[in-house]
């Protein structure tokens, strides 16, 4: 384990109010090695430098920790890709019950390998982590998942109006959806109609810089104040082709 990288990881977590144990740091390193190994076989990330993985994937995933209470909450990571931010959130907060949703079966196999190898599967049914293969439009209609989560998160998946249709159907009333965005906030202005239709309201837009970098991010927190109409999300592909704007 690289001491300098371990220190960077620890400092990043402390910046967001979490003190990582040796075990948690070790879990992150196992994750990083598997990410690099599997990335040679399939496209998981364009970021392959160790330091960049720590900063742009792990610490970036931690940036939403201030919006997640330390409780046994159910969280779904929609379009999780290589597991960001869902797996880092689970490593840091083992009490979270995390569902990782991705539309590519090969990525789901990778996620399951990480969960197993890093030993983050959870020790009870209340706070487990599982990777599932499917599209947000289909899972959002599934009674086992629809309005069953206190928190939905998505990182760099689509424009905000599209993301709202993917993610708000999963969120319980009084729950939140957290959209992790880059420096551009233009799409927020185009989200008024989608928010109104789907039962959401932006409660916070947090502009931040990742620690030890000048990388700018925006975290958009959307509260859910009423049920999403049953016809949403629309059929697979429709939200992206005809966004609610």
TrEMBL record:
Where is it mostly found?
Answer: cytoplasm
Write out the residues that bind S-adenosyl-L-methionine.
79, 84, 136-137, 155
Q: What class of enzyme is it?
A: transferase
Q: Looking at the UniProt record for this protein, which Gene Ontology cellular component terms does it annotate, in alphabetical order?
A: cytosol
- Keywords in alphabetical order: Cytoplasm, Methyltransferase, rRNA processing, S-adenosyl-L-methionine, Transferase
Q: What is its EC number?
A: 2.1.1.-
Give any GO molecular function from the UniProt entry: rRNA (guanine-N7-)-methyltransferase activity
User: Is the keyword S-adenosyl-L-methionine assigned to this protein?
Assistant: yes
UniProt subcellular location? Cytoplasm
| Pfam families found in the cross-reference section | GidB
Question: What NCBIfam families would the database entry show?
Answer: rsmG_gidB
Report the protein's function.
Answer: Specifically methylates the N7 position of a guanine in 16S rRNA.
Family from the record: Belongs to the methyltransferase superfamily. RNA methyltransferase RsmG family.
What this protein is called in its record is Ribosomal RNA small subunit methyltransferase G
Tell me the gene name: rsmG
